[in-house]
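hiii, so i know i said id send this last week but things got crazy w the move. better late than never?? heres the sequnce for the chain we talked about at the cafe, plus the structure i predicted for it. fair warning i was half asleep when i ran it
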Amino acid sequence: MPQLSGTKDKKSFFNIKLTKEQQNNIIAAVLFTGFVIFAYVKWWFLPVNNQYKEKVKILEQKRKDLQDAREMVAKYAEFMRRASEIDKRVDFIYKRLPKTFVLSEVIKDVTRVATQNNINIISFEPEQKIINKGEYKEYEIKVNFPANYRNLGKFLSDLGYVERLITPTKIDIQKNRDTVLSDKSQNINISMVLKIYTLSE
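okay and structure toks below
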C-alpha cells in the first residue's frame, strides 16, 4: 500500500496545474536568470578575464626584461674588460704604426737606441721615395756608423723594442781599415736602410 501512495504522490506532483499568471512568472524568472548570467559573462567575467590575461602577459614581458637586464649587468664587467683590452691593442697598433711620419722623431728614437749600445751614427740619409702599400706606407732612411759585432747585435735587438715599428734592411758590413788593431770597439763599418711604417689615411 505505501508504494501505491508514493506513486500517486508523484503523479499528483507532475499533474500540477499552473495558472497563466504562474506560467508567465516562471518564464519571466527563467528569462531574467538567463539574462543575468549572460550579462555576467559578457560584461563582467569576459572583460575581467581579458584584463587578467593582458596583465599576465605584461608581467611576463617585464619578467623577461628584468632577466635580460640582470644578464646585461652581469656581462657588463666582462664587456668593459674586453673593451679595455681592445683599446690597449688599438693604442699599441697606433704607436707601432702612427698615421704621420716625423723624421726628427725617428732620428731621436734611433739615436737613443744607438747611444745605449755605444754606437755613434755618422749619417742619416732619408730616401725621397715613399712606397705606398695600400693599408700602410714605407719610408726609408739610410744610416752609417762604425761599431763592433757585439754592439751591432744589441742595437738591432733594441730597435725591436722601439714603440714605432722600425725594420733594418740591406745591412752591409765592411771591415774598418782605419782603426788601430788593438781598438776593437769600432772594427767594422755598417751601412743599412731603416724602414719606417705609417698607416695610410
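btw The first helix runs from residue 2 to 14. thought thatd interest u
miss u guys!!
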